[in-house]
Write a structure and sequence with these properties.
mainly alpha
Length: 85
């Protein structure tokens, strides 16, 4: 039987990414977030963002950094550490 190489299933930032999109004025869609990240020079699609938010895909550190930059929040906030964005 294959052993799971991850300590947690899914990820710990999916809910905060969704919340970060909702807190924008006006709220931004997954497509708009993906477009913003693409303008920053990184290749993330709306499908990837959807899978992250549904906790179906893990997030590597570089992606976490780019997502935080695009949402204008801290990496710590995305990981659920504290209430200060």
């Amino acid at each position: 039987m294959a052993k799971n190489m991850y300590l947690v299933s899914g990820n710990i930032c999916g809910d905060r990414i969704r919340l970060g999109r909702a807190l924008h004025k006006p709220p931004i869609t997954q497509e708009e977030l993906a477009r913003k990240i693409n303008f920053m020079g990184y290749d993330i699609t709306p499908l990837i963002i959807s899978r992250i938010e549904k906790k179906q895909r893990h997030v590597v550190d570089a992606e976490l950094y780019v997502l935080a930059q695009a949402l204008n929040v801290s990496m710590e906030w995305l990981c659920g550490d504290g209430n200060d964005m």
